[in-house]
Amino acid sequence: SDILSKLYNIDFKMLTSKEIAEIYNTDSRNLSNSRAFVIGNEIIINSDLASIAEPIHELTHMILPILKGENIVEYRQLISSIISHPDFDNIAKSYPNLSGDKLNEEVFCTIFGEYYAKTVRTQEGQNWNKENKSWFQKIIDKIKGLFKNIFGIQDIEFDDLNDNVLMNMSIDNIMDQFG
Q: Whole-model pTM?
């Protein structure tokens, strides 16, 4: 997380609900019940509430701009495809202040995180995920490429690492095994 912080000027913090309340809650804002959130350049993960889906969700927010910069057509296809997901409207309700690409990115990041956390909202959503797995694979490939570049991973076994195993490994585990 220190390397990612330096490269992206993003500070990752893992805090308890109590610590979040002490640091971030105000009279008008209670963030201690949130699983994860972003304030400025800080990504805060609530260790009491978060599952693996939240860090994956936040990591996907870092990958999407990379994809957008490398291939805007592919990015547009990805972002517009998520609208057809059966759970899109239900998830979008959680983001009433967003619209357009920003909303679509949030919904995609949520679905992607849940996919690798093996959280299924509906059978229809699970079917969509299976039919559109190529989008998830593109993001996984970007994440693997990002990790290889950041951490200087040369190990060929990393390319063959099962995606579900990778998405459940900590940065320290990745470095211990491949760095």
A: 0.65
Q: What is the pLDDT of residue 17?
A: 92
In 134-159, which positions are buried (b, 16+ CB within 10 angstroms) versus exposed (e)? ebbebbbebbbebbeebbebeeeebe
Contact indicator for 38, 44 with CB cutoff of 8 Å: yes
Pairing of strands 42-46, 11-15: parallel
Number of C-beta neighbours around residue 36 at 10 A: 19
- Tokens found for residue 46: 């609530």
Please say whether the beta carbons of 9 and 41 come within 8 A.
Answer: yes
Give residue-wise pLDDT tens across range 99-136. Answer: 999 999 999 988 888 877 666 666 777 777 777 777 77
Q: Residue length, the chain?
A: 179
